[in-house]
Batch of 2 targets.
Target 1
Amino acid sequence: MSTMTVDNTLRDRAVAAVATVDDPEIPGVSIVDLGLLETVTTTADGTVAIGLIPTFSGCPALAMIAADVEAAVTLLPEVGEVTVEWLRSPVWTIERVTDDARRTMATNLTLAVRADSGPTPCPRCDSPTVEKSEFGPSRCRAVHRCDSCLEVIEVMRDR
Ligand SMILES: [Zn+2]
């Protein structure tokens, strides 16, 4: 086993720790599955630097997420200083959200992800939805209504 493997292991464990952190506004969905984790840098003396990208600048959950990430990584053995930074680039896009996260959001939270083109499909019945208000309960989300099942849904947005 080389020293490189040790470094990779610490990095892997740091990534796994970050993956235990859910978005406070999307319970049950990891911020890693939402595509927020961009960089994890570790050093031989156990320093871990986490780089996250925000889903939407000004989202009030950001401070809570950073604190949760720092706490989760700090709990790991052999970890010294932990820093969490919000990166200015790349810009978060909905393409970063994993299929698993999309399924969980649709099933548990009636939360959809804005379609790349055309109307956003309803998480319940897959019919096209109509935007009712540009900004929902948080700036990251819009409110849509499904024309078929009349379900009101929230839609994650990246712009
Ligand atoms: Zn529907």
Target 2
Amino acid sequence: MLKYLTPNAYYENLAIIDPAQLVTLGIEGLIFDLDNTITTWNNLEVEKDTLEWFTRLHQAGIKACILSNNSMPRIKPVADMLGIYFVEKAKKPFLSGYKRALAVMGTNTQNTIMIGDQLFTDIWGAKRLGMKGILVKPISLEREFMGTRFNRFWERRIMKAVHKRIPKEL
Ligand SMILES: [Mg+2]
């Protein structure tokens, strides 16, 4: 169980991840959670740093797809702004959404990494499918969906157990 909840790396924010390094690791696609990974919860605005980072990602030739349990009106404006694919109503951590995202990008579990801020949805699903998962620190915990707040409570406890198991490098 812990094996599937342990991310392959943990970063304070997206901008720390180096797209050029991902290319050297053979990565061709990234799947992204939306809320609290790319923007704050239910917010359509993307921070300037994040926009610039996605430009670097495009320049590195890495494809990207948002995978969100939310629906199109929430996701599409952000995906369009960033120029990336999206899969709505993903039902994470069920695996069907991840498979749809891989199909949309034409990538596979070996050359694609999931990036998200939640262990029980983003990371758990990715690891069960045999994909790497990068955990990022949530952008802001001030406002969140109630179900997410419940998950956070357990996440903090699991993080204590998995923290020392997270590799230093991808
Ligand atoms: Mg999230």
